[in-house]
Amino acid sequence: EVQLQASGGGLVQAGGSLGLSCAASGFTFDDYTIGWFRQAPGTEREGVSCITSDGSTHYADSVKGRFTISRDNAKNTVYLQMNSLKPDDTAVYYCAAARFVCTGPYVYWGQGTLVTVSS
Fold first, then answer.
1. Is 41 exposed, middle or buried (0-12, 13-18, 19+ CB in 10 A)?
2. Per residue in 81-119, pLDDT tens?
3. If we measure between CA atoms, which residue out of 87, 72, 83 comes closest to residue 40?
4. Cβ contacts of residue 112 below 8 Å, gap of 6+?
5. Which one of 14, 17, 37, 52 has the lowest number of neighbouring Cβ atoms within 10 Å?
6. Which letter does DSSP use for residue 110 in this model?
7. What is the pLDDT of residue 100?
8. Quick one: CA dihedral 64, 23, 21, 94, positive or negative?
9. Residues 6+ apart with CB under 8 A from 113
10. Bond preceding residue 105 cis, omega within 30 of 0
């Protein structure tokens, strides 16, 4: 059974930091691109960051310089370190897996983890 388990969300003050984890199982993790997405109430889901199987990283302009994505293939886990958080970063964050590139298609999705940034 394929699983992507996102965790690490919570409540943080603006300017603070939070680290998210995405633990995967049930597929060949090393071969997949993993992406983080977020969706705030009343908005469309947007891509935040992704990391390919060879370690290439990409970031949305809105988080560039503040968020860092990384992966540990030995643990089948991808991390998203979020620094200098802003209220606009408040959203449910999802991780997903794509077979090749960051543009997808993403075939496996995890449940979300809520990040709330207070002003």
1. exposed
2. 999 999 999 999 999 999 989 988 999 999 999 999 999
3. 87
4. 6, 9, 39, 92, 93, 94
5. 17
6. P
7. 87
8. positive
9. 6, 7, 8, 9, 20, 92, 93, 94
10. yes
3-class secondary structure, 89: helix
Residue 51 has pLDDT above 90, yes or no: yes
Q: How far apart are CA 16 and CA 40, in angstroms?
A: 19
Token pair recorded at residue 45? 């889901």
Q: Are 110 and 20 in contact (CB under 8 A)?
A: no
What pLDDT shows up at residue 104?
85
Q: Quick check: helix, strand or coil at residue 97?
A: strand
Structure token pair of residue 31: 């071969």
The neighbour count for residue 60, using CB atoms within 10 Å, is: 15
Look at residues 1, 78, 85 and name the one whose alpha carbon lies nearest to residue 32: 78
Instruction: Give the pLDDT confidence score for residue 63 in this predicted structure.
Output: 98
Give which of 99, 108, 109, 98 is closest to 39, Cα–Cα: 109
Task: Give yes or no for residue 73 having a pLDDT over 90.
Answer: yes
